[in-house]
């Protein structure tokens, strides 16, 4: 073996823990010579006379570096390398093959078996030291990566645990939000109201609803709170309490007359009251758009207020369609704002569709958004016999079939169908 030991240096005792090196060679003199050099340089050295013995020793005490002769009786160096890799996949070990083979094909075979480096026999001490040092650097980097990976994995587990908690809370919040809309389809004496609510996530910022304080009168609405997520969902819960169907005595749109609830406030008064209520809540920066209407089911008269919401669509029984409403400012933006009222006289078979911008601003596979023209097309393509929930479900299914990548925004709508007979006045 060629040596120039004088140019090598011992390991600094202040360095990190020394590497464990397993020397594998069927020649005892060769093993001892390599072991002597390695120990002199500060490494912990173990020896094995065969591949089988090397695997047994590696199982007992995990080596950082394996230095093995290629040509050995029984299990040769290539076979040892393959099995060593298979048995120690979780903990990387640097593998050096000692060989007199120097052809490219031989090197390729060794690399394919999992070897990291080669040393040509007879081994030069300086080259041996350099190869071990290179392996030491690679192992140090591998250990650092493993350590960082463990930190990342632990962080990911913590994040997953936190996500699971949030997910459970959101599912519960979804249940609570769904309770705000207990009835999605309800028939009245002279009309029917049907609701559609499709949040883009667990919870959303859209709200639809209806309520009736007595025979022949019904109020219904479509609301879209600014923003998305938890804040918007909390706002819908608050607004839902203002327009409660279950507790009409607390409903801001219902008036008490002669000691009982028997009147619906004018829509513009409701918009004004909601605007004042929202602006009075300290710390709330959210606002919402709204289309709110009340219907006199005996006469077929609908009074409507539009506050920044998309224009409601009036669908006549004969197929004629037109958008109605006066526009208006969203609720919760400007103190003292006033809104205009729109009055619509309906005939039996007429429909009024209130909807959020999740419809008109839906992104389509063909590019662009649905817009009002697309909504008119969807409605016109609906089978004429479809009504109530069937009409709403069909409308949404055909919208979803045209959308590019699912819901980017909540999609909601309220459909009022007039079935009564108007008076002759």
Task: Provide structural commentary.
It is a single chain. It is rod-shaped, with a radius of gyration of 39 Å. 36% of the residues are buried. The protein has 10 helices and 18 strands. It has 2 domains: 144 residues, 3-Layer(aba) Sandwich (Rossmann fold); 240 residues, Phosphatase 2c, domain 1, CATH 3.60.40.10. The longest helix has 54 residues. The strands form 4 sheets. It has a 6-stranded antiparallel beta sheet with strand order 6-7-18-17-14-15. The chain has a 5-stranded parallel beta sheet with strand order 2-1-3-4-5, sandwiched between helices. The chain has 425 residues and is an alpha+beta fold. Helices cover 36% and strands 24% of the residues.
Strand tally is 18
- Number of helical stretches of at least 4 residues: 10
Strand line-up in the sheet with most strands: 6-7-18-17-14-15
- Helix fraction by DSSP (H/I, runs of at least 4): 25-40%
In CATH, the topology of the largest domain is named Phosphatase 2c, domain 1
- Structural class by secondary-structure content: alpha+beta
Mean pLDDT: 86
The CATH architecture name of the largest domain reads 4-Layer Sandwich
In CATH, what is the homologous superfamily of the largest domain? PPM-type phosphatase domain
Radius of gyration: 39 Å
Determine the strand fraction and express it as a percent band. Answer: 15-25%
As residue ranges, the low-confidence spans are 1-9
CATH class of the largest domain: Alpha Beta
Domain Response regulatory: 20-136
InterPro entries: Bact_Sigma-Reg, CheY-like_superfamily, PPM-type-like_dom_sf, PPM-type_phosphatase-like_dom, Sig_transdc_resp-reg_receiver
Modified residues (4-aspartylphosphate): 69
GO biological process, one term: phosphorelay signal transduction system
